């Protein structure tokens, strides 16, 4: 089974709303996108380091674990992402920039009900030598994004598993793209969960 993460949009003010904080949590309604084996590039760009929040969550039949993840008002997260547009496009200028992807991503998030965006990514942390290593990389990358530091690129690339030597294709190009380019498309945006995203 793939280690997956999920971008959620709910009215819960807690991270991991699927873990019981929102009794009527419906994956078809509240899970905006999913991804296997990585945290897609644009997901983290919605958040600031100050958006990180801790919480104990239950994992199946095991003991509760202490988790940390970002959560923010959707309106604030989208405004932050838009404010980082020029920075992100410059950061990945050698790949053709991210204007196309940012437009599609923002449009997808704007269409969902729910006030708060968050990422459920504990399973991605299990891919690292220790969950603390993953958490530290996320925190560092968010801090670098906040500072507008080019160093953020390193963390974004590692967390998203991007093939950085490839040009970022557009939606029109994706069906005929090489496998590596198609891989990058989903590592930037993620993919639909239950309901397809426009780029699936």
Textual characterization of the structure:
With 200 residues, this protein is an alpha+beta fold. The chain has one domain. Helices cover 39% and strands 16% of the residues. A 5-stranded antiparallel β-sheet has the order 2-1-5-4-3. Strand 3 (52-57) and strand 4 (65-73) form a beta hairpin. Helix 3 (74-83) packs antiparallel against helix 5 (99-110) and helix 7 crosses helix 8 (152-160). The longest helix is centred in the last third of the chain and has 17 residues, at 131-147. The radius of gyration is 16 Å and the shape is globular.
Largest sheet: 5 strands, antiparallel
Shape label: globular
> Given the structure, what is the number of helices?
9
| Separation of the first and last Cα atoms | 20 Å
Run of helices and strands: EHEHEEHHHEHHHH
**Count of extended strands:** 5
Low-confidence stretches: none
Given helix and strand content, the structural type is alpha+beta
Beta percentage is 15-25%
Mean pLDDT: 89
């Amino acid at each position: 089974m793939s280690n997956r993460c999920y971008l959620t949009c709910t009215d819960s003010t807690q991270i991991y709303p699927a873990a019981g904080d929102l009794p009527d949590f419906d994956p078809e309604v509240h899970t905006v996108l999913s991804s296997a084996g990585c945290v897609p590039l644009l997901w983290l760009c919605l958040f600031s380091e100050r958006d990180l929040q801790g919480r104990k969550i239950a994992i199946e039949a095991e003991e509760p674990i202490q988790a940390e993840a970002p959560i923010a008002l959707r309106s604030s997260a989208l405004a932050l992402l838009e404010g980082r547009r020029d920075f992100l496009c410059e950061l990945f200028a050698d790949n053709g920039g991210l204007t196309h992807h940012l437009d599609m991503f923002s449009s997808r998030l704007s269409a969902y009900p729910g006030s708060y965006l968050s990422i459920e990514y504990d399973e991605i942390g299990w891919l690292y030598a220790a969950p603390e290593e993953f958490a530290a990389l996320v925190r560092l990358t968010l801090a670098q994004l906040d500072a507008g530091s080019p160093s953020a690129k390193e963390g974004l690339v590692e967390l998203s598993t991007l093939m950085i030597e490839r040009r970022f294709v557009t939606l029109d190009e994706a069906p005929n793209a090489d496998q590596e380019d198609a891989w990058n498309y989903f590592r930037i945006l993620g993919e639909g969960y239950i309901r397809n995203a426009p780029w699936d």
